[in-house]
Known about the structure:
By secondary structure, chain A is mainly α. Chain A is built from 15 helices and no strands. Chain B has a domain at 54-236: MetI-like (MetI-like fold, Orthogonal Bundle). The longest helix of chain B has 40 residues, at 230-269. The two termini of chain B are 33 Å apart. Chains A and B meet through helix 1, helix 5, helix 6, helix 7 and helix 9 of A and helix 1, helix 3, helix 4, helix 5 and helix 6 of B.
Amino acid sequence: MRRFSLIAVPYAWLLALFLIPFLIVFKISLSDTALAIPPYTPTLKDGFAALIAGLDFENFAFLATDDLYYKAYLSSLQIALISTSLTLLIGYPIAYGMARAPQEWRATLMMLVILPFWTSFLIRVYAWVGILSNDGVLNQFLMWTHIISEPLTILNTTTAVYIGIVYTYLPFMILPIYAALDRMDDSLIEAAEDLGCSRLTAFWLVTIPLSRNGIVAGCFLVFIPALGEFVIPSLLGGSGTLMIGKVLFEEFFNNRDWPVASAVAVILLLILVVPIVLFQRNQQRQAEAEQ
Amino acid sequence: MKRLSWFNITALTLGFAFLYLPMVLLIIYSFNASKLVTVWAGFSTKWYGELLQNEAFLDAAWVTIKVAVISSTFATVLGTLAAYVLVRSGRFIGRTLFSGMIYAPLVMPEVITGLSLLLLFISIGLDRGVMTIVLAHTTFSMCYVSVVVSSRLVSFDRSLEEAALDLGCSGFDAFRLVTLPIIAPAVISGWLLAFTLSLDDLVIASFVSGPSSTTLPIKIWSAVRLGVSPEINALSTIMIGIVAVGVITASLVSKRNSLRQQREERAAERPA
């Protein structure tokens, strides 16, 4: 009985505030647009049969006919993929350098990677507005050094979105890769080199495969949140940057079309199921390998 | 001792410059006397003065802190309970659903969480305000707390708890006197994590807040959408400063503790 009440409290909380809200989103995505325009009134009181009869796929059909939506999904996928690769390319050398650093530096380096993580996400994205704008710090610097004569337009372009995602999610890439590299036995590299591998071959054949779990975990930790990102494309991207998180937000707040916003959310969730399941599997395999 | 190659030194220097330069620039420009980013008009602290007189910001800061304290405390209790259930209860009906509900919010896009909670609050007729933000924040941050706490519970020697039970402790006393002190560091970091997540949240709060419950991130958001603002630079500097002091203190404390532990272990090894 006691055990039951222990389980019941967090269980009921999550059911009420996590699962049921999703079912509501799902239901609204299937409800009639004309009836469901706010103030939306739930039709549960009309009885279950009426509820089922009222469901249709009109909103999903609408998403398929308007090319804004599939373009937004595709461009979110593309932006998330490219920025994940960039984060890996930048994050790996940093994690590698940390793992090679003398023991007494490592705690400090680790703290320096974690510190931005505790700092407000919004502020870290905002910091780039002043750097990337036409009269911003970067353009002033480049013009002062005479590398360019005209200011570059970076803010309000997709390039700025890439910079923003790489910058804010870099710690999520560095930490799991560092954890994997830190556990690695250095004598394996020495053995490979003794056996005639060049440094680069040893790195490619020994270090990379041994840090594979860290790389996979880091990539998912960047890719999954980047796909639904709202703050970065709204603040740094321009009107040409289509991302589904932004579309959903605008559909809901500006167009006040709740059923379509719900349908957008349902499809985004379906797209995310694959990477989320793969990520969970990777984590489980890693946990089993450690035991 | 390993030596760093030039490649490693370059990677670390450029990497950390990339991580810190934007924040350093933000701090420098918060002391700029000019309102424009382009011109450096000399050192000034006037933006801090204006910030402290801006009632709207102070009100929003107060709402944010209130929400963060309440929601992180609830989240810590619920999250610790959830972790305890997941690690200790073995099999029970609906366990897969339960662990799924614990892990899913960690990877859920904020726009979806916000939208779904808002639709829930509307369909049960709950007025949006501080209370709805607290409910929303508690829900997603309890999941983070439970992940942090359960990783500590997994590595914990269960026989200590069993010994307490054998020696006549009630289940609750064994938890209070044995388990809780051991998992305390994880519970505290869980609370801090929940607190920070709540302070930081813009998207979910935008969905579930009402007109009378503007939080600081919402206020910052509406100011920065129009471009760079020196008051926001000043506010950012204050926030970065608080985090930096907190993180550095925490790491110094943990370093001192681990040094002391090492000394004690060495002293214990020495023959009497």
